[in-house]
Design goal:
Layout: H1 5-23, H2 34-43, H3 49-58, H4 72-76, H5 88-130
């Protein structure tokens, strides 16, 4: 069983490099056109030259965000996730929204009362004119 392991590792690397090359956008391919990289991977895959060349020189690798690795302080002082009901900022924002909603509701109720009074006044005036 162990005698098949090197063959399977070569095959896995070959397939990974081929699929990675196909899925890489054209603007992230370095050195040669994407089609040429696919051909190199397929032709020289059995001897690992093609897949290793693709992984080393063919694809543009992205640097970590911020340009460097995080400092020791940032690694040891990670922000802890806080549940919304324990987060004071979130609770404060809920109270502010509640105040806005309450004032809006009061305005609507006042407007409704005003309109009802106007309707009652019109009905009385129309009732007085008909009699």
């Amino acid at each position: 069983m162990l005698r098949y392991l090197p063959f399977l590792l070569v095959l896995a690397l070959w397939i990974y490099a081929f699929i990675d090359c196909l899925n890489t956008p054209e603007e992230e391919v370095r050195g040669l056109p994407k089609v040429v990289w696919v051909i190199i991977i397929l032709l020289f895959g059995e001897v690992l030259v093609g897949p290793i060349a693709w992984l080393v020189a063919g694809k543009r690798r992205h640097a970590p965000a911020g340009g460097s690795t995080p400092s020791e302080w940032h690694r040891s002082h990670r922000t802890q996730w806080v549940a919304p009901d324990d987060n004071p900022e979130f609770l404060h924002s809920l109270r502010e929204e509640n105040k806005k909603d309450q004032s809006l509701l009061k305005d609507w109720e006042a407007d409704l009362r005003r309109r009802e009074e106007e309707l009652k006044k019109r009905e009385r005036e129309q009732g007085g004119e008909q009699a």
